[in-house]
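Why run this: before we spend reagent on co-expression, it is cheaper to look at a predicted model of the complex and decide which construct boundaries make sense. The entries below are exactly what would go into the expression plan.
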Amino acid sequence: MSEQTDPAPGGDGTGGDWRPSREAVIDLLGLLALGELLAFERMAVDARLAPDLGRRARLGEAAVGEIRNYRLLADRLSALGVDPAEAMAPFQEAFRTFDAKTSPRDWLEALVKVYVGDAVGDDFFRAVAPKLESEDRALIERVLEEGSAAGLAADEIRAAVESDPAAAGRLSLWARRLIGEGINRALAVSAAHESLTGLISGDGGSVDELLRTLTRAHQERMRAVGLNN
Amino acid sequence: MSEQTDPAPGGDGTGGDWRPSREAVIDLLGLLALGELLAFERMAVDARLAPDLGRRARLGEAAVGEIRNYRLLADRLSALGVDPAEAMAPFQEAFRTFDAKTSPRDWLEALVKVYVGDAVGDDFFRAVAPKLESEDRALIERVLEEGSAAGLAADEIRAAVESDPAAAGRLSLWARRLIGEGINRALAVSAAHESLTGLISGDGGSVDELLRTLTRAHQERMRAVGLNN
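The model came back. Tokens follow.
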């Protein structure tokens, strides 16, 4: 809370006079909003892969948190005078490509996708928050407060891997494919949107560095559910 | 509110000593809970047919009301000592058949399905509520309070039909197919679940009569958005 009256982004020793451009903030909020909207849809759709109605409903209910986050981000875009749909549109193709290449074939693959996507998403939110000014930082904190679906997925993955060790290899491979495709899409998005690259590197750091940090955290989480890298 | 302390279902002149069986109430709550859960999923899935991200998000957000209703009904089943998944399972095949035969090919067909399904669902809730005892009646009232997705769909359908009169014929035909398949499924469910037939007819009325009432209301709603029967 020490940053609440600080108009400049915290930064890490590079001085407090750097500020993200309006364009970069809109791009970032559009990217995050679309990510939340599509995570909602994906979870609702993939819930159909559940082996029983109880789990199916639980994944659907977990999806609600994502669309709530979408609403928070969309409202902020509207407050900035931007149509959320317009801010999201530039990123639609990247997500479409990602989803087309990572369509889960069964319930466990769907859960790994939720687990990886949700956690990497949260890490990304945490990494970009310090680059933003106080109002947007507060928004990101609210988004991160929303109960994560990753916990639900992690418990199931861990139990599945324990009861069927052969599943670990298959799901580890699947997680590598998810993260590989995710990195490809992230690089394509950052190459096409200089404003975002500027935001990420403007206050110290780089897109490559961010991807390495996200990947490292991802690898630790994989081990936490009994998968390997 | 006059019925709040009345332990017997209101009825309509047949006397107040008839009560639904526990089995019938569980069947009914299971049917309604599954209907809400699947309506949620269907809307989230069909949102992908939207012509733009703004409408896509609005349909996803409207779907949240359905899964909230699912939670209310599932909690009531749990309170009655029944696993919601078990109470829903007997009706899964009927919904699966219905959805397989009524998969929308475009955004307007998806909206007509939301409009018809949501409104017929609400009418069904209203029709069965008086058959229930006070606690379950109060639950149904809470379910009906949840903002309906039908309004959103109706506005879009009306606008589409006004701007393209040829759409009216196609969508009218589609709505007839939806209601025809719905009646088929309702008859199959009632034939397989005597408890439900008993609940519907136990206090006066019959399944046929209920279906006629629902169909009549449906036809009026069709006219309200510029479609014909």
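Chain A is about 75% helix and 0% strand. Chain A has one domain: 22-224. Bring this page to Monday's planning discussion.
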